[in-house]
Specification:
about 140 residues, alpha+beta, 2,3-Dihydroxybiphenyl 1,2-Dioxygenase, domain 1, four-stranded mixed beta sheet, 3 helices, 9 strands, about 20% helix
């Protein structure tokens, strides 16, 4: 028996904003809910988002000082960038440092990847390319 990654969990400060980001901007599907806990999925992996109800926490360190970031592959990079911008999430793009601001009305669009922060400051790398990051060949696991 091998080890299986069951889920990644994010304790959020605003569950509604986080669900708007992960579901509406990035396209994950809600597979179940339990009170203030949402399980989202891409069909293979479980991503749990739940409301933080404890004492105040220090602000998450984001950007290039983060301790954590998540990589996501989308079917269409430009559509994902537009959804993020339309929903008010600021993105940066091109290069691994993600330092170029995205201007949604520009003719110049991200061609490889972009970065966006979730409502709690977690950096998410977005690409549409199969070869952007190493990982499991999901299609062969089906």
């Amino acid at each position: 028996m091998s080890t299986t990654l069951v889920h990644i969990g994010v304790r959020t400060t605003n569950i509604e904003e986080s669900i708007r980001f992960w579901r509406d901007a990035l396209g994950l599907k809600i597979s179940s809910t339990h009170g203030q806990c949402y399980d989202l999925t891409d069909g293979y992996h479980n991503f749990r988002v739940f409301q933080h109800n404890g004492p105040d926490r220090p602000k998450h360190v984001g950007g290039m000082l983060d301790y954590l970031h998540i990589g996501v592959r989308v079917p269409n990079l430009h559509e994902a960038a537009k959804r993020c911008e339309d929903l008010g999430f600021e993105i940066t793009w091109e290069g691994l440092d993600g330092t170029k601001p995205y201007e949604k009305d520009s003719n110049e669009l991200p061609s490889i990847a972009f970065k966006v922060e979730d409502p709690d400051g977690i950096v998410v790398d977005i690409t549409e390319r199969d070869d952007q990051w190493p990982g499991v060949d999901i299609e062969s696991k089906g």
